[in-house]
Every structure is written in structure tokens, then in C-alpha cells.
Amino acid sequence: MDTTTEKTNRIHHGRNVKRFREMLGLKQEALALELGEEWNQKRVSLLEAKETIESEILSLVAKALKVPEEAIKNFDEQAAVTYFNTFNDNSFSNSNGTFHANYCTFNPIDKLVEVYEENKKLYEQLLASEREKIELLREKK
Fold first, then answer.
1. CA–CA distance from 108 to each of 28, 113, 136 (Å)?
2. How many C-alpha atoms does 130 have within 13 Å on its Cβ side?
3. CA distances (Å), 15 to each of 47, 76, 81, 102, 104, in order?
4. Which of 80, 65, 63, 60 is nearest to 11 (CA)?
5. Are 61 and 53 contacting, i.e. CB atoms less than 8 angstroms apart?
6. Beta bridge partners of 93
7. b/e sequence 113-138, b meaning 16+ C-beta within 10 Å
8. DSSP letter (8 states) at residue 51
9. pLDDT digits (tens, 9 = 90+) for 12-43
10. Residue 34: other Cβ atoms inside 10 A
């Protein structure tokens, strides 16, 4: 068996429809409404159980989900997991496998306290300025 056939056998169109539907936050009933009057929750459920979906229906579902038809046909969960694991492994380790993380060089709470103190000083300056204005107005009367 060649690799193209093996890949096709591993990809389950119905599960891919379900994954995209769930990623979009849609319930089966909502997808059924998007697909048309002859669709209902039960029919969407049966569709999601099918390993291979007919081209016409796949096209209709892809339009309803607003995803490319090829995305449903070719999405391979294992390949995606491998890709993201490789991405994460490379971003958090160097060539000898040690873990590297970015650490803050400051305490965020200390910075917050500094901001509050600065605001307090500015408020006190504004209050003193307003008091001076009031005194000047009283003197002019």
C-alpha cells in the first residue's frame, strides 16, 4: 500500500467536520440550520460518524463552516499534534535539550505599587494647585 492510500485511510472526514464545528463553537443543531431545511441534528451526527463524505455534501458543509473543503479532506490530527509538539520543543529547548524560559527581571507587583505612588503624588500636586487657585480667588474679592 502506498503512503497516499495510507494517509487517506487515516483521515476521517466526519471527525474533521466535528473538529471544525467545535472549534467554531457550533452545536450540531446550528450546523444543521446552516446546511438547509433537509438537515437536522441527527443527520449532522450521522455525517460526523462517516469516514468518507461525498464530494457534494463535503462542499456544502465546508461552505457552512466557512473553511476550505481541502481542510476537511486533509486535516490529520496526528500530523497537527506532531507539528505543534515540534514547535513547542524547539521554542523551549536548545540543541542539548535543556529547558529555557523567559523570566521577568522585575516584580510586577512592585511596578504596580510604583504606578500607584506616582498617581498619588500627581493627585497631591493637582490638589495643591487647586487650593492655590482658590486662595488667589478669595484674595481678589
1. 44, 9, 42
2. 6
3. 9, 10, 15, 37, 42
4. 80
5. yes
6. 99
7. eeeeeeeeeeeeeeeeeeeeeeeeee
8. S
9. 899 989 988 988 889 999 999 999 999 999 99
10. 17
Q: Is the pTM of this model over 0.85?
A: no
DSSP string, 52-109: S--HHHHHHHHHHHTS-HHHHHH--HHHHHHHHHHHHHHHHB-TT--B-----SS-HH
Say if residue 140's pLDDT is above 60. Answer: yes
CB atoms within 10 A of CB 53: 21
C-alpha span between 22 and 15 (Å, rounded): 10
Rounded CA gap, 120 and 79, in Å? Answer: 55
